Amino acid sequence: MGTQEMMKLYYGWIFPYRDFYKWLAYGNDSKLPQADAGFMQRREFCFTLDGDIFDLDGLQAAIKERCPSKLDIGPVYNINPARRAAYAGSGQTFTPVERELVFDIDLTDYDDVRTCGSGGHICNKCWPLMAVAIQILDAGLRRDFGFQHILYVYSGRRGVHAWVCDDRARCLSDEQRTAVANYFAVYRGQEGGLARLALGLEEHPAVTRAAAILEPVFVERLLPEQGLLSDDKRQEALLAYIPSERVRERARQRWAQGEAGDDVARWHALEEEVAKEQATLAKARDTRGAKALDRAMRSVVFAHAYPRLDLEVSKKMNHLLKAPFCVHPKTGKVCVPIDPERAHKFDPETVVTVGRLLDQLNKARGGVKGSDAGEEWRSTDLVPAIQTFRACFLDGLQGACRESLAARARESAAQPTLVW
Amino acid sequence: MVGWVLANSVGAPALTPSKEGLSSEPGSKHALPSLSMYSELPGSEISIEEFEQAALDRLRVLKGLDDLKAKGFRPDQVQDKVLSLVDQYLKAATRESTIRKDTVSHYVLRLAYCRTEELRRWFLAQECDLFRARFRALLPGEQRAFIEGNRLPFRPLTPAEFREVEDDLRATMLAVTGSLQQTNALFQGAAAPHEAFYRAPFEAVPDLVGSRRVYLRAGHAYVSRDQAVSLAVQPFRAALSKALVTTARRWSQVVGPSEAHRLAPIVESLSQRYLGPDYSDPEKRGVTGQVAASDIPRLAQESFPLCMQVMAQALHESHHLKHDGRMQLGLFLKGIGLPLEEAVRFWRAEMAATAPGEKFDKEFLYNVRHNYGKEGNRRDYTPYTCSKIIASVPGVGQVHGCPFRTFGPDALRSAISRLQVTPAKVDEACAKAKAGHFQLACAAVWEGKHGCSCETGINHPNQYFEESQKVLHGEQQPGGPGLSQSQGVSTANPAPAGASPLPASVQPHTKHARVA
Ligand code: SF4
Ligand SMILES: [Zn+2]
Fold first, then answer.
1. What is the pTM for the complete model shown?
2. Best of B170, B182, B216, B237 to disrupt the A interface by mutation (most A CBs within 10 Å)?
3. Domain residues for A244?
4. Reported ipTM exceeds the 0.85 cut
5. What does the UniProt cofactor note say (chain B) (predicted)?
């Protein structure tokens, strides 16, 4: 069966429309008086087949009919995007009014610190980079910004998307989105073979927290699995972050003597040498020098593990992003949700593919119960993915949407208050 | 009656306005008139004179502020100087009249500076810096009162909230200041340390969030007293920016057709106004007739700033200049004392190769006379200021504008090198220009050419010329720092009487404007 044909069947039978719709309606599909019946119509969906932008009268019908190789979600506009032309010249401008705050992290941006592969490659050795990125984002978004409804999705190939769906996140201005994105932007690109990092001698609590999350992942997973200290070239690349020739030289000696066997042992040897040097500096009352070494060690960890966000995606309200649950046309993998608490357990190599799902559907065909009509995914391996979607995201979101619609109803009954 | 319908058309800013600005208590360092969000128009009648005078005075403050920044000061370094400008120009006899002057002048300049993107950006930048300076000067209690009075969505922490986040706040401030001492001062300075911090929605301080200069918890940003100015200026900027756009769009409604002919010239000239010495009237300055057409090549060598030299040269080589260039150079020449007859002689000779005899008379003579106020609406045009020249962008085949801005690095370097400037100054000028400090770059060239320091800074090509001539012909007077000197001149020659841009015929019957 060709991919095109499989897609047709996938979107025809398996795609979880109901859950998908419930999410994007944000409670406006309810009968509550404050619900906005036109809400879904004003959402931009982009079906990459012919590059057109369509409105969504029936999400299901449209997707089935288009059978897209790619389905992107844009913002909700003030008017139905399909009628945009009709409003031209009417004086009413066509502007995005709300949009999830989104993040995009892609493994290709880590090629200088991946040794297991590059480009479109992904495996269990480099997945910890994505998993720890989720951990850092999740901690910051929840604790610092107070967001609660965040969906993490495997991008189908070599990356992860995050959708922040709280009311407050959806109505951020571009300037505010940029601020949030920059808040996370400790990694600022490469410069002269080194990562450019916004690190100081003293750190903001968010950076301190990030360091605590990164360290164990760096030491226990990345160092050994990526073999970051396993040959001369890699050793020197890492030592380039250490601002003391004495420490570098001692580390080289110890590593050469073979005293330290594997990558992790080599790292600990380096840590010891740094600690010794710091003790010397402390005796000389050079606290700055000692702190600079701390920062250097932190820099190594951040350079190899801190999330490298594609900031442009987050900054603009009207950036399109691939929808969850669609199928990556090259890999056939489904963009399944990821439980942020279990990000390290996620296995990118065994993500369900459209082919497997169709097989399962075929086998189960005779046995589909009546109650499952329209939810044929129930007889496939998409079940755990949809369970994750609901448990980690949709259930909480729906409760909050009902709550906020009810609150809006109460509010409109009372006097308008200052809205910031 | 001037139907000045600003109140309806500008629209109050998004935030609920306070009834009035905040008075300063005797304790504050500067006797600040008031600090206002300008969300309400002054009531009662406004005379045209008041209208214009107040606007000019405010412009002096804003321009002074801009000059300070152009000299390379950071906003926090100009604090005291800005406040003394405010004292000097915006203070009136009583508290009420001071508030009124502050408000009236702000609104008039809104009108004058709403009309192009460039003007709006300039005005917004200066007003925000002015607001910052005045806000910083308030005592903590006054800042709080302002924030509460304007219903800004921030409030000081309660002691319990403070205790809960104290350690993280300390860590944040340590990371921000990089100094334990400064951090401790922040926590110990106030009698009640919790009052040293405000809590605001993170959305309110995007600049502080983006640079990780605030502690965040659960969507709240904890902003230190020193950063509170960021909190206050944000809604101020947003509201003003919006109001400027609205005003621009409704300009025709704001100033109805019946008032347009009275207000438009004032408003228009305000936005082009340069507040240093007035070079528009060379006759009054007593320089007219000192220069003949035949002197120009020598003077260009000696004392023309780069922009004028480049144009004079282009004219000489191609025997042609486009309209904007003719204006820029022609008015400059008028300003250095070239009388009309000599100007006609000069232009005729320079353009003889492309516009001989009658062609010149037909196409360009009018233009030359026009610059001297002898044709058309007979307005006596003023030589362009640096800021006006810098703002203009030459198209293909045009050579006007400021070379420090328009030239590429290599072209600029070779142009400066031709002026016989010391190599160190060439480097300095190139670096300044690259950093966007065009007038500083120009001053560096001036210094490199004359071998003495340029006290006043460069604000005007005619000033460049006059200072140069003074040095060359030995009448250099010991000048004070630039700002106070140019102020001295402008106060000595107060508008509007002599320098009023209003055509005389319009002035009489416009005694009072009424604010709708
Ligand atoms: S700074 Fe002023 S005087 Fe100097 S070149 Fe530019 S516009 Fe001319
Ligand atoms: Zn890999």
1. 0.66
2. B216
3. 187-305
4. yes
5. Binds 1 [4Fe-4S] cluster.
